[in-house]
Design brief:
3 helices; cytoplasm; 23% helix; Phosphorylase Kinase, domain 1
Length: 108
């Protein structure tokens, strides 16, 4: 099992197993907040443009941060509405959740 993948099968099912550093290219930070940073990126396999929210759950309050990530992932997996951004999934890399991926549409 790759480092960073949860051992609990119920929790592990919330996350894709791929390595996000290999899957997403051209990351450019577009925003930053107390919970993490948001990046513009491209899926290297599909050329789909996405927003990637990277959230660290190491350091102080690791358990609380991890619980917040789980709560957000579980909520967003259920969210399906035409007026919301589409949730694409979540990946783990060491102590960072790369996730809450959304399709980004550009209108010019």
């Amino acid at each position: 099992m790759r480092k960073g993948v949860p051992k609990d099968p119920e929790i592990a099912d919330l996350f894709y197993k791929d390595d996000p550093e290999e899957l997403f290219i051209g990351l450019h930070e577009i925003g930053h907040g107390s919970f993490g940073a948001v990046y513009f990126a491209t899926n290297a396999h599909t050329n789909e443009v996405v927003a990637v929210k990277k959230m660290s759950y190491s350091g102080k309050q690791t358990h609380e941060k991890w619980q917040d990530i789980l709560k957000e992932v579980k909520f967003l997996r259920q969210l399906k509405h035409p007026n919301t951004i589409e949730y694409k999934g979540c990946y783990l890399k060491e102590h960072t959740a790369w996730g809450l991926l959304f399709t980004v549409q550009c209108y010019f």
